[in-house]
Amino acid sequence: MADNQHNGDAVSPNAMLLDQPEEHIVEPNGTESEDVAIINPDSMETDVVLATDNDAMKEIVLPPLAEEPRILEDVVHTWEVQGWRTMNKKERGPIFQAGGYPWRILLFPHGNNVLDQCSIYLEHGFDTNSVPDNWSCCVQFALVLWNPKDPSLMFHHSAHHRFTKEESDWGFTRFLECRKMFNVVWETADRPLVENDAANITAFVRVVEDETGVLWHNFNNYDSKKETGYVGLKNQGATCYLNSLLQSLYFTNAFRKAIYSIPTEHEEDMKNSAYTLQRLFYQLQTSNVAVSTNELTKSFGWETRHIFEQQDVQELSRKLMERMEDKMKGTDLEKALPMMFSGKIKTYISCINVPYESSRVEDFWDVQLNVSGNANLLDSFQDYIQVEKLDGENQYFAGDTYKLQDADKGVIFNSFPDVLHLQLKRFEYDINLDTMMKINDRYEFPEEFDASAYLSKEADRSEPWEYELHGVLVHSGDLNAGHYYAFLKPEKDGWWYKYDDDKVTKATKREVLEENFGGFYKTTGGRPQLNAKKQPIMRPNSAYMLVYIRKSRLDKILCPVTPADAPEHLQKRFEQEHAAREAKRKEREEQHLYLGVKAVTDETFKAHGGVDLTAFDAAVGSEPGSYKQYKLLRTASMADLVNEIAADIGEDPRRVRLWIMVNRQNKTVRPDQPVMDLRPTVEETYSRATAHRDQALRVWVEIADEVDADGAAVWPTYPGLPNGVVVKNDLILLFLKWFDVESQCLRGVGHIYFSKEKKVEDLIPVILKKMNWGEKLPSDEKIMLWEEIKPSMIEGLKVKLTLKAAELQDGDIICFQRTRDEKKYKLGLGAERQGSEETAVDRYEDVRDYYDFLNNKKNVDFHAHPQKCDPKQYPEFSLVLNTKMNYDKLCEKVGEKLNVEPTHLRFYTVNASSNNPRTAVKRGHQSLANILIPAGYGQLNMNQRNDALYFEVLDMSLAELDTKKSIKITWLSEGITKEEQFDVLVPKSGQVEDLIEALVKKAKIPSEEEAGKIRVYETSSHHKWFRDLARDYSVLSINDYTSVIAERMPTEDAAVSDQANFISCFHFHGEPSRAHGIPFRFLVKEGEKFADTKKRLEQRTGIKGKSFEKIKFAVIRRSSFSRPQYLEDDDILWDIATNTDDLLGLDHPDRARTTRNGAGDLFLKG
């Protein structure tokens, strides 16, 4: 028993009960514990509470529970214990009833495997075999040990627990130290707690209602589908935010139906996000287990890094809506999503004293409401439509007719959507900390509310604008780390459910509302709970998104959806996939009944160009010389196997003989002996085959060249006599391989039988005949013979030795080649060949060198670097290379393939997870093997592919490149709308002037003399302008952590030298902290109305038409960074942006967001 188990820990005595029924081993499990309550009459200032005063004791030992469950029954039961020190190791008290179930006290008077402690528990009183299946009971209880002669002397612990068939008891292993119980006075009293070995134990048992079925549940073996009828979504890493949003959209039934209606029957592609979303919804509807979102996120184009980064839910929701809306264009559902989720909002300035109003009506898909400074949802709405008075010096210019006028400025809603998404601004920028912070203030939201108070006078009020809560999306944690889950109400009059990734449970209204208002935890009296520093303990969880449905449209939005509503092609596809899974499952289940057979035939051997007879470790069919594969019942006979193979290769079974192939000690696999008795089963034959390291039976298939008069095969070796005896003669089975020097390949020729007593040189006539080379070779040619002992050991055969003396045996491989120049052969590995690298690497004159190549060859894929090279100009290709070659030889081979200078190539390793380029390979004497698998291949390099490289074709040699600095620069060719990325090389001693010249050359743009001056500036990672770079600024000093931007300087900018006349501009969406795009500097003109300023901005940015009209402009002051001051046409930017650090913000969605800005940017591709 661990020493850190405190007196108050409530545990089960059976928590670790294994083999010994009487040994109760327990460990603390983190359940809440109560401090020890010692009640001493001498130290009490108030009336003494007696253990016999049940009502008073209940107030002390059964405090209110945080979950506030309904109390079903309170029961008090006392067990009078006699002869304490003479009791058995374990004792049980009498059974009593509570909540309709039997209970009793479980006592270990001398401790449950702990020293000097007594252990007391509460357990159910069912007989071991009579506990009802799925039985559970939620109980709050206290166990009180007291002196029957003086009830004021007592000691107690309290706990609560969900009792089940598996967890039948709960209580306190370290209830009280034994030394304090006997023979010593209890605290300041004059008698011990246990007097005369007698004491009473009272159980105060409060049975509470388990309304949701999961109160205090440990969720072991919990089945969401069985308990709730719904299933959850698996968390891929940090995708709980995605899961909560998807569940919310899924239970917006009209949205689900609309998604089902997107035509995807001709685009069943896993890259199509509409199709994968249909699949996800269909699985949520039909699956019995939690569903994976892998298919959906892959269709978004997300990689592993995106899976492990939490994204903004509002942005994800908007992008997903946009993507689905695009998929619905041109169909009957084109307007379905806007009608469901989009409302109208009007921004206005209305004069008070004259009939003049300037207004603009826009669509909205969600409403962002301030939490800070507002107590509840209705306050936030009131704050949202709050009217700003424009008077005094801030009067509004109402045109030439009305001049300056007092006016009201604000926003008002013209309509709300059927499904109203409310984004609660729980995260805001803290100017003091210069970072985003989570707001944990208490913020209440109602189950129902009337939105008509926030509508304009012109709004259609033919139907009530009453809304009912349908979903609460919750964030638990802080800004940097947290967890997302959702509470949803799938049916109009049904239960609320909590969707927490793969777990779905029923939820009470308290869980939905009160527990997600935020703020501090409350005590029973409503006061804040305090921590050790006397500070209120804040709830980590609070609602950040609310989903309301218009009450008059509830039936329409929550319409029934059945599996039949899913596209027919989708249902068929899942039926096919289910059938395929079932077939695989059945195959796995029956796998033990079958045995695989790998067979080498003469045809496969002749097509094999590598070592041994075939590559048994490779996948079947992966190469021309691959083995044939069969599967038979383990009980099938070898005769059955012969018949199946014969039928497959088109031969008479009587002419087929199988040889068992075994692993030799040198790790080669060769035929050992033929199978002469075909009666045993394939499993028996497999078991008898010695030294096999394969799960399949491996055989070589021999076809007889001769048959007798009856058609029976005549075998050269192991012939069967009439009496059934098999005899062995002096012939051995040899396999022949030919190394063709001209075509630089090795291939199987076939097999022969040869007498062991003959000499090696006698093989040559047989080879000549096999190869159809005539009776003898020309005088200036000869045949060289080697034995392939193992891939790394190829030894020449001495022609004058007998086969027996050469130690040849059944299954050995003889390799031969023709050679014309004996002198050249004798120089084989001599000085002449060492001096010719071309010969050593590219052409092999000696079979031993070719075998060395086979042992070290590797198929390497080459891809053009996606950012540094044009993949269209240089398509991907593969080369079979010797991994012994060095960097320069690798450059030669790849340069030859690409038809480029070898010195102008640079290589990059490949990330195994993303297939993106990693680091550049340094030029040196390292081999290709060391490049692909670096020395010390461990954690740092495990994520590197060992069969692929990226390449870059350089404008200069690598040697010259070392004198340059590479600068990644973005060229803006059309305002700020068109970005082109370039990697520009500048001498390390160069300046920005040199950078501009290099850019002009690299980007092939007109020079400054031809088209105007070029400006270079830096931007921060937060998409803000950082500084202009002077033309004499050193390139070595350019910050590696900023982005470098180049643009053609506008004519009006070039004429102004005072930098105070320029304002820094940046793009954001909704919140200034959500910046995006390319920032820039803009010339501000004194006295210019913003209507005219916008015309210059349109020209400056290059954003045209409706895209520009949708942009809202605001002055952002660092002193109030989170509150933009939006500009009207009659405003004068010069007068408003008076501080040097004021910024001009362009508020619009980032339509062009890609992965360029890193994993933090959210994007959907499919």
Summarize the structure in words.
It is a single chain. By secondary structure, the protein is of the alpha+beta class. The protein is 21% helix and 30% strand. It has 31 helices and 53 strands. The strands form twelve sheets. Strands 13, 18, 21, 22, 23, 24, 25 and 26 form an eight-stranded mixed sheet that branches. The chain is flat and about 120 Å long. The two termini are 56 Å apart. The model is unreliable at 1-8, 14-45, 824-841 and 1153-1162 (pLDDT under 50).
Brief synopsis:
With 1166 residues, the protein is of the alpha+beta class. It has 31 helices and 53 strands. The model is unreliable at 1-8, 14-45, 824-841 and 1153-1162 (pLDDT under 50).
| Quantity of strands, as a count | 53
Q: What is the average of the pLDDT values?
A: 85
Gyration radius (Cα, Å) is: 42 Å
Given as residue ranges, the uncertain stretches (5+ residues, pLDDT < 50) are 1-8, 14-45, 824-841, 1153-1162
- How much strand content do the residues show? 25-35%
Outline: flat
Instruction: State the secondary-structure class.
Output: alpha+beta
Main beta-sheet annotation: 8 strands, mixed
Question: Please, how many helices?
Answer: 31
- What is the chains' assembly state? single chain
Which percent bin holds the helix content? Answer: 10-25%
Span between termini:
56 Å
Family: Belongs to the peptidase C19 family.
InterPro entries: MATH/TRAF_dom, Papain-like_cys_pep_sf, Peptidase_C19, Peptidase_C19_UCH, TRAF-like, USP, USP7_ICP0-binding_dom, USP_C
Protein name: ubiquitinyl hydrolase 1
EC number: 3.4.19.12
